[in-house]
UniProtKB/TrEMBL annotation:
One of its GO terms (biological process) is 'de novo' protein folding. GO terms for molecular function: unfolded protein binding. Residues 184-217 are annotated as: Disordered. Keywords: Endoplasmic reticulum, Membrane, Signal. It comes from the Eukaryota. Pfam families: Rot1 (PF10681). The keyword Oxidoreductase does not apply. This is Protein ROT1. The gene is ROT1.
């Protein structure tokens, strides 16, 4: 019996092999990496962190994830996603987050430790009592392993990250080297209050149109 290796299986096999030792990677981790079309990117295009009242988010056309890494141990992360509501399609909940900090290699894995006071997340729910809320965000990330390959379909450098439980994140493509990043130090001072801030409601119609447009592209 003959077996053929699909493109997906090929990527998986390459990831498995390379993830055993980061020295096998075809290039270094330095750079800005982004999923899909690259609409989500680090470097201040999406988030300008300030106080809870002055932090601003600019929404990209598509959902996605972006990571940036320097050679000397700093990272930045942006995530944008939403949850649909089949019962009430108008009640889409959007989540956009930003954080940065330092990273270390742990064997075949990575540990990403944010600057505690700087991370921000905005949650928009047009059907909630509080429709638009920004809070502090501090999420230490453990990556079980990682690999950089050349995607055989696109010929692009591709970063594959497996989370602490082995669950893979979507593949991310190199979009900038050196990376696009905000300054790699604490930007907003020390936070110990854990307060939240309600901001002026953003147009729900605008959000829905943006999400629909992004999914169709």
């Amino acid at each position: 019996m003959r077996f053929t290796l699909t493109a997906t299986a090929l990527l998986a096999s390459l990831f498995s092999a390379n993830a055993q030792n980061f020295n096998n990677n075809v290039t270094g981790i330095e750079g800005t990496w982004s999923t899909g079309s690259g609409a989500v990117s680090t470097g201040g295009q999406i988030c300008i962190p300030g106080t809870l009242e002055t932090t601003t988010f600019t929404y990209p056309n598509n959902t996605g994830i972006s990571y940036a890494f320097t050679e000397d141990g700093f990272f930045e992360e942006v995530r944008y996603r939403y949850n649909a509501n089949a019962t009430n399609p108008q009640c889409i909940t959007g989540f956009i987050s930003w954080q940065h900090g330092t990273y270390t290699f742990n064997g075949d894995g990575l540990t990403l430790t944010p600057f505690q006071s700087d991370g921000r997340i905005q949650v928009q729910d047009p059907c909630a009592a509080v429709t638009n809320q920004i809070t502090y965000y501090n999420n230490v990330m453990q990556m079980k392993n990682w690999a950089i390959i050349v995607d055989p379909l696109t010929a692009r450098y591709t970063l594959n990250l497996n989370q602490f439980d082995g669950a893979p994140l979507p593949p991310m493509y190199l979009i900038a080297k050196p990376p696009n990043m905000l300054p790699t130090h604490t930007l907003t001072g020390t936070n110990s209050s854990g307060q939240t801030s309600t901001r002026r409601r953003r147009s729900v119609t605008s959000l829905l149109k943006q999400l629909v447009k992004g999914e169709s592209e």
